[in-house]
Automatic annotation (TrEMBL):
Residues 5-227 form the CobQ/CobB/MinD/ParA nucleotide binding domain. The keyword Transmembrane helix does not apply. It comes from Clostridium scindens (strain JCM 10418 / VPI 12708). GO terms for molecular function: ABC-type vitamin B12 transporter activity; catalytic activity. The gene is cobQ. Keywords: Cobalamin biosynthesis, Glutamine amidotransferase. Pfam families: CbiA (PF01656), GATase_3 (PF07685). InterPro entries: Class_I_gatase-like, CobQ/CobB/MinD/ParA_Nub-bd_dom, CobQ_GATase1, CobQ_N, CobQ_synth, GATase_3, P-loop_NTPase. Coiled coil: none annotated. This is Cobyric acid synthase.
Amino acid sequence: MAKTIMIQGTMSNAGKSLICTGLCRIFRQDGYKVAPFKSQNMALNSFITEEGLEMGRAQVVQAEAAGIAPQVQMNPILLKPTNDMGSQVIVNGEVQKNMSAREYFAYKKQLIPDIRKAFRQLDEMYDIIVIEGAGSPAEINLKEDDIVNMGMAKMAKAPVLLVGDIDRGGVFAQLLGTLMLLDEDEKEMVKGLLINKFRGDKTILDPGIDMLTERGGIPVVGVAPYLDVEIEDEDSLTERFHGQKECACIDIAVIRTPRISNFTDFMLLENLNGVSLRYVDRPSKLGSPDMIILPGTKNTMEDLRWMRQNGLEARVVRAASHGTVIWGICGGYQMLGDILRDPEGIEAGGTMKGMGLLPLETIFTKEKTRTRVDGRFLKVEGILAGLEGIALEGYEIHMGDTRSGLPAMCEIKDCAGKQTASQRTRQSMDGVSMGNVYGTYIHGIFDREDVVTAVVRALAARKGMILDDLKAVDLKDFKERQYDLLADGLRSHLDMKKIYEILEGGI
């Protein structure tokens, strides 16, 4: 049986995912076979495994840090919000159905056997399992039949490290208040406290740590600094949406819709010299970028309605008429078309006019496409014609069938075998281009160096610029360096000897 340790937080975005990622890397460096686990994840960023199953990206990142391939058992339940009151429920990588929050709250205990089975499979394969909680264990309105925080810790017999975020302020109240709201048996499971995102002179903090240890009766196992590492974020609380990058030679704007998904598609572009990539949520912030990207979304129709109401749609259409490069991915691709039809009420229901920038018709169906693909660009129009012949790879996650009379932009093959015969026939070709407007269903299409450099060189050439030293990072090597930096930073500031004692001692 594997040793277990669980990371819970005082709130969302306290840094649980990052701490789990760093511990996965540390344990791997120390010679252990380690796997991540999160029983229930709520996120719009998801990933398709080699088997064609869908899981949350946080556990994918943690698996990468652990040096193993992502498995759907690491995240047996994924909730993808479709609106403010409900989510698509994905169990063991497969869509169950859409549920309201109240409906899911009553249903979730039926998923305990799936959680136990997934955890047991990992338990048989690994030395250590690093478990991540969700939100806060002190959400007293959600504690009944809990399956992700203390309920999960009890199932796994896992000692808990409780993480508080000092950057937001009130970290002592966060940690002590959380302990006060736990039941006595739950509090006994908390074996260490961890302060995260600290900036400044730690000696000034030491009296507070002494008080925290005394009042909480639980040792503080570390004060983790605000680490300058580039690790994929999982959800809408990411700080990258709020960054103000100085405008570089090439300016790329990503439309930040309310239900934006898989913004990890742009990690390589964000780290390319000479490129500034920024997220835009209102017309006044758009400016005159060289390229506008409409990203994936969990609800195409509602996010298009949001763009229509706040004026961003009109600005994107105007930019396209002036020749600005527009690129839509997945839901963004669907928005670019003429018409969206939702006869079964998968999204908003009914029929909706699209942006009219590409001659497309999308019909939403209950059947979900989820697969890994590779292939190449075919004939590409406009200033990105240089993409022709370049290899591509990525994955598809979408509900909807998009048809067009235009020639396909990409030739692809299904690498996971999760498409039906009719889907393979339709989707052996993907995407279209017309003028300087481009669309595709493929997430990760900008994860290859030759693709992003071809795009950026073309954007530069249009401005009369030659970027001689343009070189994208190798994404895999870049991630490996970041995981090592994260592990080094945590080792320097966590009491790893105490953490190993907690790991060995269990509960």
